[in-house]
Amino acid sequence: MKELIKQLTEAYGPSGHEEQVRDIIRNAVEPHANSVRVDALGNLIAAKAGRKGGKKIMLAAHMDEIGVIVSYVDEKGFLRFQGIGGLDLMSLTGSRVQFADGVLGVIHPEDRQSYKSEPLLSKLYIDIGAASREEAQSRLGQAACFVRPFAGQGQRLVAKALDDRIGCAILVAALQQLDDTPHEVSFVFSVQEEVGLRGARTSAFHIAPEIGIALDVTLAADTPECRKLSMKLGDGPCIKVADPGLIAHPGVKDLLVRTAEAHGIPYQLEVLDGGTTDASAMQISGSGVAAGCVSIACRYVHTPSEMVDLRDVENAVRLLVAMLKNRVEL
Amino acid sequence: MLLEELSNAFGPSGCEDQVRRILARAVRSQVDELHSDALGNLIALKRGRGREPRLRVMVDAHMDEVGLMITRIEKNGLLGFRVVGGIDPRLLMAKRVVIGGERVPGVILAPPIHLTKAAQRAQVVGVSELAIDIGATSDAQARECVHLGDYATFATRFEVLTEGGLRVAKGKAFDDRAGCAVAAALVDEEYDIDLALSFSTQEEVGLRGAQVAAFALRPDIAFALEGTICDDMPKKADVSPTTRLGQGPAITLMDRSFIADHRLVRLLQETATQQGIPYQIKQPGIGGTDAGAIHQSRSGVPAVALAVPCRYIHTPVSLLSMVDLDNLVRLMKAVLHSLPEGWTG
User: Fold this and answer.
1) Whole-angstrom Cα distance, residue A105 to residue A126?
2) What pLDDT does B338 receive?
3) What is the mean pLDDT of residues B331-339?
4) pLDDT over 90 percentage in chain A
């Protein structure tokens, strides 16, 4: 599983540019799904048909990551940019970004002192080493993502884009391990979550599931002087109760809790005070969907070095597989 | 000229009737079906010559413009208002407006310079402190021609500024009557695909018309046509002009509302290059268009936005190059002719 996580997190995939990630996932899921397709917006949907008597369940993890898009090339060949998704302004300076063709750029502020007192995106530029506008002009409109190698230290994993390649890896593993299910399960690897849950919205409309569960990261609050939240690395997958975009369906939340307890899988309950996930779009799709979310506690979300605990990841897979194996009533 | 008629027409968001009538008249004889839906979108369908099932292509342009709405009729006959869509309050004072389809003329009040202090003049007067003066001396007199909830638009009339070169035209509401003029110009040729034009309502207040039009039309792919930001005046800093006048139609790769489908972007770029039509890439990340609503419709619709650069949009007067506009018509026609082969899906 570590190898898959490494491959997924090191791939290039800012929102709207998920092709590389999709190819990796497609290869991993194709032998295990009854059908695999790519829809109009680029979502990859792997379907697993079940025995009779089950529910129609949609599981979603997003393939895209935050990144930047070049908005202007100046006379000297420096690139100005806009964010794709919510950038962490503090971690941008000194970061390296990579374009689809592998070209690297360095992010730097015009003036370090004034950026410290007032961090504004408009005061940053990307330097790809170009000497003139002509040399860099083709970059206009191109997207880039952050670059960092994956690292595993004991049970802790550090990488860029664990948000949400870790969710993708969990779904892939769950599909691989799910030999038999009563349910009709759609494993959706969604696009454009970071810019507005856009892929999950259209795929949920198409699938029209009864139950929708997102797999995503959540903010861990176990670091020095951090915000007051309860989620911790290593305490088990988080079963979402609420975030600003979702009040989890109580039946889905209870189903996950019951399943975890029945199988001795550690879990923590999650109430998040910022951000949301694909479950928010699923919940209000069509005539409505019973939606919930399983999250992995993650430190330093939306920076180039996100950190999760591998045991939480493995337990999330166990939780999903256990839930999908049996009939469910909400 | 259709653009002139469209620009002069009265059509703030939710009050697009005049624009709809003009467009219906312009396209009626060359389309197979024409109707308006529950939200006032004008939908024109032109069936293709190709074999069924045919690719269904939605081309959207919004009919509405930013404007004002009367919210108070004061005892002294002055009219309080709010803005409909995004208008910078600094632009409002002393502008000529017309109220309602009957075009009741009025002026937004402004204190004379003799009575204001320098510090006062450096301040922005908010919309709530402004009013429209229609010359009425009492609320009773004002009510004879104006009602609460009536809309107002700027009184700007269309004019061609230069006959040669970029053929620059001046007018209001080029966002998005420029797109409407381009979309209407597409129907005089036959295509293999089914063309569904949506002249949409209420874009400026939240992409509302296009959302339901796309739901009803179920297109396979979509093009949103716009009049867009053009900030190409000389500047001190080396920053983006967003688009440049006269440099060709602008292709949007990403804005606040959507990320363009790469395949459609590539098709547009290749077609433009083949046909020798200039184009430019709009500064990514800025603005939003109906493509935002359309691409999220139902199971998702690959979409792209194309625009005529317009200086000073969302103000009482903007400028565009009719060369850019003609080039957008050429590019759209060439792309529609390249379909369905050009779309690999």
Assistant:
1) 6
2) 97
3) 98
4) 97
Catalytic residue among A193, A194, A270, A306: A193
List, by residue range, all CATH 3.40.630.10 domains of chain B.
2-65+172-338
Q: With contact defined as beta carbons under 8 Å apart, do A232 and A297 qualify?
A: yes
The shortest C-alpha distance from B229 to chain A (Å) reads: 14
For residue A192, the chain B residues in CB contact (below 8 A) are 259
The predicted structure's pLDDT at residue A1: 92
Gap from B222 CA to chain A (nearest CA, Å): 12
Q: What is the pLDDT of residue A53?
A: 86
Q: Over the stretch B289-314, which tens digit does the pLDDT of each residue have? A: 999 999 999 999 999 999 999 999 99
Tens-place pLDDT, residues A237-286 = 999 999 999 999 999 999 999 999 999 999 999 999 999 999 999 999 99
Provide the token pair at B229: 């930001």
CB contact under 8 A, A39 and B300: yes
What whole-number percentage of chain A has pLDDT above 70? 100
Contact at CB, B259 and A192, closer than 8 angstroms: yes
Go through chain A and tell me how many residues it has: 330
Strand, helix or coil for residue A109: strand
Per DSSP, the residues of B30-47 read G-SEEEE-TT--EEEEE-
**Two tokens, residue B48:** 């293709």
Domain boundaries for CATH 2.40.30.40 within chain B? 67-154
Mean pLDDT (chain A) is 97
* Residue A314 and residue A1 in contact, taking contact as beta carbons nearer than 8 Å: yes
| Spatial distance between the Cα atoms of B250 and B68, rounded to a whole number of angstroms | 29
ipTM exceeds 0.90, yes or no: yes
Which residue, A285, A279, A191, A193, is CA-closest to A239? A279
Cα distance between residue A33 and residue A16, in whole Å: 25
Quick: pLDDT tens for A20-70: 999 999 999 999 999 999 999 999 999 999 888 899 999 999 999 999 999
Handedness of CA A237, A241, A242, A246 (dihedral sign): positive
Closest CA to B300 of A204, A46, A20: A204
| Residues in A lying within 8 Å of B, measured between beta carbons | 15-17, 39-41, 43, 69-72, 74-76, 80, 82-84, 140-141, 143, 192, 195, 198-199, 201-203, 205-206
Instruction: Please say if the pLDDT value at position A172 is more than 90.
Output: yes
pLDDT of B345 > 90? The answer is no
C-beta atoms of A40 and B239 within 8 A? no
What per-residue confidence (pLDDT) applies to A51? Answer: 87
Residues 10-29 of B with CB under 8 A from A: none
DSSP letter (8 states) at residue A204: H
pLDDT at A299 over 90: yes
Tokens for A68, please give them: 């930047």
Task: Give the span between the Cα atoms of A30 and A26, in whole angstroms.
Answer: 6
Using a CB–CB cutoff of 8 Å, tell me whether B163 touches chain A. Answer: no
Statement: residue B344 has pLDDT above 90:
no
Residues B254 and B239: their CA atoms lie apart, in Å, by: 18
Options 3.40.630.10, 1.10.630.10, 3.50.30.10, 3.10.180.10; CATH of B2-65+172-338? 3.40.630.10
In B149-269 the beta strands, taken as DSSP E runs, fall at: 151-154, 159-160, 168-171, 194-200, 221-230, 250-252
Which CATH number applies to B67-154: 2.40.30.40, 2.60.40.420, 3.40.190.10, 3.30.1360.40? Answer: 2.40.30.40
Rounded to 10 degrees, what is the CA torsion of B167, B171, B177, B179? 30
